[in-house]
Amino acid sequence: MTNAQESPVAANTFRADLDFLKKHTPIVLLESNGAAVAVAPDYQGRVMTSTVDLQGGPSFGWINRKVIEAGLLSDEDRKGQLEEHIYIFGGEERFWLGPEGGQFALFFQPNTKFEFEDWTTPAAIDTEPFELVEQSATSAKFQRNCEMINFSGTEFAMGIQRTVSLLDEAAIAASLGGTALPSGVKCVAYQTDNRLTNRGDAAWAPQTGMPSIWILGMYNPSPKTTVVIPFKAGDESELGLAVNDSYFGKVPPAYLTVHDDVLFFKGDGTHRGKIGVSASRSKGIAGSYDAVGGVLNIVTYNVQSAPSGYVNSMWEHQEKPYDGDVLNAYNDGSPAPGEPPLGPFYELETSSPAAALKPGETMRHMQTTLHIQGSKDQLDTIAQRMLGVSLDDVIVSE
After folding, report:
1. Quick check: 132 and 144 in contact, CB under 8 A?
2. pTM for the whole structure
3. Tens of pLDDT along 200-229?
4. Separation of first and last alpha carbons in the chain
5. How far apart are alpha carbons 61 and 207 in whole angstroms?
6. Which of 355, 31, 108 is nearest to 211 (CA)?
7. What is the side-by-side strand order in the sheet with 212-219?
8. Where are the beta strands (DSSP E) in the chain?
9. Do 88 and 126 form a contact (C-beta atoms < 8 A)?
10. What is the DSSP string of 218-232?
């Protein structure tokens, strides 16, 4: 029986987001020792949000309540709306497929232009559900078969499998270099095991396009949130650019600072910009620090050999379609003067290598996400060990 005297759930908490989500879509709740993750099967097994404390903790994922509440629109109602191109449900870790742009793009159909009017998110990774096939208290497994066509007209028969798992204390310690969390520090950590299978009769080849697994997370911005990406130092002639900041126009210095082996990028949701780090530069890790909420976020992925390279998602005909980035970060903001932001939110993203799969073969891309809440001194120790920087130095020079 519901207690009529039950206290209202505080806004901006995981409980408030969980209650809202359950009213509009099925939710699989994973929980262990107070840490919790909310997963939405109908949104492609998407991690919508997570928390260090189920009862009263913060909600780390950005959720687009307006779009979720409105639900899927009719074809007529979608015309002229953003939903004609994408349903931005939000969520702190979603399954996508690359490349986005270029001659092998999955977001542009044949005989279209690389312009927003022709950009469309494939339904299989936008509006169509994944099937929940296994579930436990701390893990949920999803699967989906689908077909897609790329800009060059190549047809792909795909099998997708995705498992979301909460990490226990031992796994968290292993993810943090073998060191347990300090006393009093709270953490929610989960890993996603994402697999892509070639269900067709022909091999996926460079000449016709090879998709990749693309994992993206939308997080709540704050005025004092900074993305931190350490990278391998070295000469551009050997390792290439330290950072690609030309996705949506060059990022101004007030939002991006690049040092010899680390970059700082604002995640405040006030200026639209995107950056990328190549596989030759990446150390397999990215993070962000929210000085307002006292939260350190860490994202890692399974670094693997990439004989076919990484897909290029730039919106143009590409000279090097397999010379793309493995790590990306995005800061939301107004896409044009006078227009509202999509969120606002900021994103951390990782990608698998291009999938040169023969019929029946499978590629696997794993991502681990940790949200760690504690005092600045406690988080500083972790930041120095994992990201190679002190939190006192995490600042974008203006």
Report:
1. no
2. 0.95
3. 999 999 999 999 999 999 999 999 999 999
4. 56
5. 38
6. 355
7. 94-98, 212-219, 346-351, 325-331, 273-278
8. 28-32, 35-40, 46-51, 94-98, 131-135, 139-149, 155-166, 186-198, 212-219, 225-230, 256-258, 262-266, 273-278, 285-290, 295-301, 325-331, 346-351, 362-373
9. no
10. EE---TTEEEEEEB-
